[in-house]
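Q: What structure does this chain adopt?
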Amino acid sequence: MNDVPTNRLSIYLIKDSYSDHQSILKNFDKLTKEEIKDGSETIGTLYFGGSHLFEPSWIKDFFGSSFENNKEQNAQDENRKLKLFNASSKAVLLIEHQNRIFAIPFGYGWNLLNHGVWEERFGLKTTLNTVDANNLRRIDKKNMSSIPKDTSEQLSREGIAADFGIDIEQDLIQSITGKSKDETFGKSITGKDALSVSVKIDLTGIKEFLESCYQKYSSDDYKKDFGWIDQIAEVKDPTLTETLNGKLIENIKNNAVEKTWMAVPELVDWADVLGFSYKNSMRDTSRQDDICLSDFLDSLSEDDKNDLSVEILKRKKIFCFNAQNDQIKHQWSAYNCLYCETNDDSNEKTYLLSNGKWYEVEKNFSKQVDTDYQELRNQTPSFTLPAYQHKNENDYNEKIAQNDNQFCCMDRKNISHGGGYSKIEFCDLLTKDKKLIHVKHYGGSSVLSHLFSQGVVSGELFIADKDFRQKVNEKLSDSHKIDNVINRPNASDYEVVFAIISSSDKDLEIPFFSKVSLRNAKRRLETYGYKVALQKIKAEKQEQDETED
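A:
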C-alpha cells in the first residue's frame, strides 16, 4: 500500500433506478469503452471521449491579433507563434458493486454523466458519517432567511459547526470539508453530491474502498451531531422536480389553492409602484394593486388555460409599473412568483416551491414550524389596524397617525447607526401604549423575511444601545418621546407587531421560509422580553384619489 500513489478521487453513487450504462452516460454511442480488469477480476468499464487541443481563450481575448496561434501560419512568422494549447481529456469509470453503480470521473469526465442520475448528497452524507465533528474546515451553505444567499466559509483551523455561524433552521448545507476520523478516507474529506477524497487507492483496492463508502453512506450515525441537516434540502432530481411541477399544475387546474398562491418574489419600493399587469402592452392600461393567482389565470388565453404547463408559466411574465412614468420597473416569470406546498406521505416529506425552486422539508420540522405559526396567527390581537385603501404603505401609516393621536408615524424616518448597521427603520408606527408596529405588503419569502429581520434589528438596538434610543427620540413627536433614553427600557412593556397587508379574504398564510424567519425572530425578541404579535391588514380596492386626501 505504501507504494500506491495518493489519488484525488471524486465518487458518485448512481441512483438504483439507473441500471444500464447507456442511461447514465451522455452520447453513449460516441464513447469508447474499455473493460478494466485486475488480473482475472473485472473491475469496471472505462468510458472516454477523444481528447483534443484547443487554443486558450485569453490569447485572442486579451492579445487580439498580436499573436497568431495556428498551425497554418506562414513559416516566416514562426517566431510569432505562442504555441500554447490546452488539452481536454474526459473519462469515467463505472463500477458495479453490491447491486449499485459507482461513477469515478477523470479529467472532465463528470461532463459525460447525464444530469440527475446520481444520488444527491451522497458525498455529503458519507462525509458527515466520517468527519470529526470537532474538526471541520470549510462549509458551503445557502441561507433562506431573506433573499437566498450562497456563502462559502473556511476556518483558519479546524472547528465545530457553530464556528461557522450556521442557522440550523434556515441554512441549507451544500458541502462540508473536515478531518476524517477514519484513516481509510485519508486526512481530509469533502462531501457534496460527490465524495471527494485524497487516498492511497488505485485500481487494486477500489472495490474495497467503494464498499467502505457505501457503508458510511448507509449509516445514520451522522444524526447524532448533524441531525438538523435533513430539515431542508434543495430538490435537484429532475424526475422529482417534474413530478412536483405536475402536482402544481394539477392544484391550479383543480382550484386547490389553499397551498398555492402568488406573491411578489423580491423587495420592491411600494411608493414607486403604480400597479401590476399580466400583459406587456401600452394599450392595456389596467393595473392591479397586487398580483393574484386567479387574476393571472383570468388573463390567459383559453388555449393556455386548457393546456396549462410549467413551460407556459415560465414564459408568461408579470410586470410591475413605475408610479412616476408608467414604465416597467420590474418583471418576473409567473413561475417565479408562484408559491406551493405539497406533502408526500410515502416518504414523510413536505415539498415547497419558492422563487422558482423546489425544496424538500422534513415533515416533523414542517409540522413544528406550522404549529408555532398557527399559534401566533390565532392569537386575539390587542387592537385592530384599519383596512388598507391607500396609495402606498407610507400613505397608510401617515393617515393612521393623522386620524388617531395614539399613533406616531415613524415610516421613512430612517436612523443611521454604526456598528455595521445603516439606515435602520425603528418601526412604521409607534403607539402610546408601546406597540412597535412594522407594516409591509404581503410578498414572497424574501419580502417577509426582510420585515421580520427589520423588527429584530431595531428591537435589539432599542434595548441594548442608548445612542440608538437617543436617535429614535429625536425623530419621535413630543407626545411619544422616551422619558429616559439613558436607562435600559423594560422590553416586557413593549409589543412588536408585524402587520402584513393582504388582499386575501382567507386567514393570513405566508411562505414556509417566512414562517421559519418569523419563528426565529419571535424567539430572539422574546429573549429580550418583548411580546410579539402578528396581524393581517385587509387590503380593499383602492378608491379614487380624491378619497385619499
